[in-house]
Every structure is written in structure tokens, then in C-alpha cells.
Amino acid sequence: MIESLTAAQMRAIEAREIESGRVTGAGLMEVAGEGVVAAVFAAWPDLAQSPQKAVILCGPGNNGGDGFVVARLLRGWGWEVEVFLYGEPGRLPPDAKLNHDRWAALGPVRLLGFPQVIAEAAQMVRAAADGAALVVDALFGTGLTRALDGLAPVIDAVQDARVVAVDIPSGLCADSGRVIGGHVVRAALTVPFHRAKLGHYLAQGPEICGALDVRDIGLRHTEDRHEVRLAVPDAERLAKEAGAHKFGHGHALVLTGGAGRTGAARLAARAALRVGAGLVTLGVPGAAQMEVASQITALMLTRIDDAAAMAEVLEDVRIGALCLGPGLGLERAEALVPQALGAGRNVVLDADALTVFASQPDALFDRLHDGCVLTPHMGEFARLFPDLAAEISGAVTVGPAPSKVEAVRKAAHRAGATVLLKGADTVIAAPDGRAVLSAACYDQAAPWLATAGSGDVLAGLITGLLARGMAPLEAAKNGAWLHAEAGRVLGAGLIAEDLPEALPTVLKSIGI
What we know:
The protein is of the alpha/beta class and 512 residues long. Helices cover 40% and strands 15% of the residues.
């Protein structure tokens, strides 16, 4: 899996490499600038065909130093380049000052805010950007901790231009993907170095970053268990061995609601079967038996009216995973969830199975074990973890801002179970702090998954993978990836019923 980093993790990697003597700060800055230019020409090949005009906005730190390198390289391509600096040359860090001076030998540096007032500076930037093929945002990088409200006129002056952001758009928190204050540079292309940062994928990050092109700058990477992995499928684990039989791939039990409320559970059960569970049974109250029986074929059915009936069904030790929540109803959830958790099997809890504990979340947490996976959307998450939800909601005034990753990690630790918080930036965390990000954004976006029943299918996928023997974090990660990929395969117009039927195509695409 590919790692995504926090700003602090990236700084530690850079510092370690510089301290080792393998690289220098100035050398990294040069390679970073080269990476930005290469990314620009890859994104817009027409810009490499003939000299154009560029405006470079440099900030007071090393991000600004990268901007000076870009300016010099574009000048070498014959471009007309205008450079603006927010800050004072004498206060730049040594490597940024070096590249400032290299540029200053070729062309002028116009100051923003010193000595001009910012409104006048914004007018200069607006005039320079008029007709420019490219604006480079090298104002502030991943270490930004304050709002850019004072630079608002300058930011507004380039918002209609084609902007490439160096490492991260200025004003965006690199750890959370949230805007610090009220102003941010919106980019058409963002060029991170070494690894993408969490903020490129979380919250508003994808919308503000535009396209993403991660560039290698020659740093070695030592794996850190605290890093967040990006979800990729485990093709070997998802495959089935030749000669395998149905009981070798697990038996899943999905509980339905009452009459007229069985559709969500049927979606989950079909997804569990499609993802490879050997057998899937729907546990149905008597009043809904005929309704369900008339809708299913490969799925099995058993009558479960109450907790006693569930206990009897669970005497079958081959049932390895349960799914409760989709369409279950609060009354039925209140009766069946404690019984399911007490059986010691792997359990996926979604929807009503979570909401029923909204007024007493500790009553749920006290029953959970390490074989459980909770799959809330943000509303359900806020009911169970109101303090954590509050941390990642509302306005941000200073950075680094609390992130969805932090919140889900804390939730998993508190609950003692794996937690998957749904969204285009789905975050999955285990109680020990391991975390995975399944990001359906950029060229992997799947917006048509925002449809009724989609989450029920995801719950079923995870249940099926648990039944097959995957560990909770592994099952949740693979389920989230398969869910998003099915959405991408189907595209516009999909409905939840389509998602399980797309799985054969998705599995074939990864060699299964």
C-alpha cells in the first residue's frame, strides 16, 4: 500500500535524509522545482510547445524557495516570468534565500505587503496574471498553521487563473484537508513531493487541489506504523483456491427488519455472497418470511423472531460473521445486537444497530470485541462519538486542524473495535491505531455511490470478507475499495442493486 503523510512526518523524513548527508536542502529544492515543471508540462502539453507567461507567488519559507526554482526553470524555457514575494528577502531560510538570489540575478522580485499595502499588491498580481498561462502558488506549504485572511485580496486576484500549487494549495491544512480561516488558493493542479499528504485526500482537499501529481524527489522511505495507508485490494486474499468448497469460505448471517423493511438487508446479503462468502443466510422475522422468500434465490433464509431464536441459529458454529443494522429497525436492533455481540462471532454493525445506542454509547462499547466493525456515516458517528465529531466539524482558525483520521483512530480505540467512517474520504481504523484511507477522489472518484442502499452493500461486503476469514481491518479496507471500484465501473445512473452485480468485473480487473 502507498502511504499518505502528515506534515510532521514529511518534515521528519526530510530532516533525517539531510542529516544523513544523502541529500541537501538546496538539492531537494531543485528537484522539487523540476518536478513541478515536469508535472505542469504533463498536465498541459501545449505549455511545453512554445514560451508562455507565468506568475510565481512565493512565500516566506521553503515553499517560496521551490517557487524561485520554478521561476528560474521556466525562464530557461524562454517564458516571461513575474515573481512576487510575500515576506522580506533577508528573512528567508538559507536554501530559499539561495534560490531567491539565483532568480534575482535573472529578474526582479516584487514584494507583497512589504512595503506596499496588500490592496495595491493585489492589483499588481491581478494585472500580471491577466493573460498569464500559469500562476504558481508557492506561498505556503504543508507547515501552514495560520489563516491567510490578510492575503485575501491577492488570493482573490488569481482565482480565475490556471493555478498549480506547490506541495499543497496555500490555506489548506495538510493534515486534515480543511481550510484554515476563510481563504484558500484553489488549484487546477497540485504537485506534492515524495508522498501525498492526508489533506490532499480528506475533507475539502480534493476539491481545492484540482488534479494531483505526486513527484519523487529522491527521499528514502522507512515504513512507519503510524502512517496512513491508501487502500488497495489484496488480490491474493480475495481469490479462491481451486477445489475450494462453500464451507471453506465461510457462512454469513444477515439480519433483516420486519415486513416492508427487508430490502436493505437483502442488498447486504447479496453483496456478502458476491464477494465470496460460501453461504449467506438471511435471518427474517416470521411476518417477513414470504416477502423475503419471493425475492431471493442463492441466498438462504431462516426464521429469527427474537434473541432466543438467534441464539439457537448461532449454535451452528460454521456461521462466522453477522451483519446487523440495514433496515433492522430500532426495536429489533435493541433485542438482537446484544445477543449477536455476546456470541463472540465477527460482527458488522451499521445503521439501526448503531443508532439504537445513540443515547447510551457506552452500553455498546462495553459489549464490543476486536472482531467487530462499525460502519457509521457522519450522522451515526456523531451520535456515538459527539465530541470527536465536533472536533472535525465547523470552522478552523489555526492548524494543524483535527482530521477525520484522528477522529476515527480515537473512536476505534474508545470502542475497542474497528471503525469505518464513510464518505468519499472513507477512513478505517483499528483499536491499535492502524489506519487506512479509501479515497474515492481525483481520477478514482465515484460520486454516483451517493445513493440509497449503497452503504448497505458496503456492510455486506465487509461481512462476506469477515466470513471468509479476513481480519476486521483487512475486511473493511478491501470492502471499501471494492465498493468504490464497483461504483467507478458502473458510473452514472447506478443504483445500489447494481453494485453486487459489478463485483465479477471488478474482481476480474485485479486478476481474479
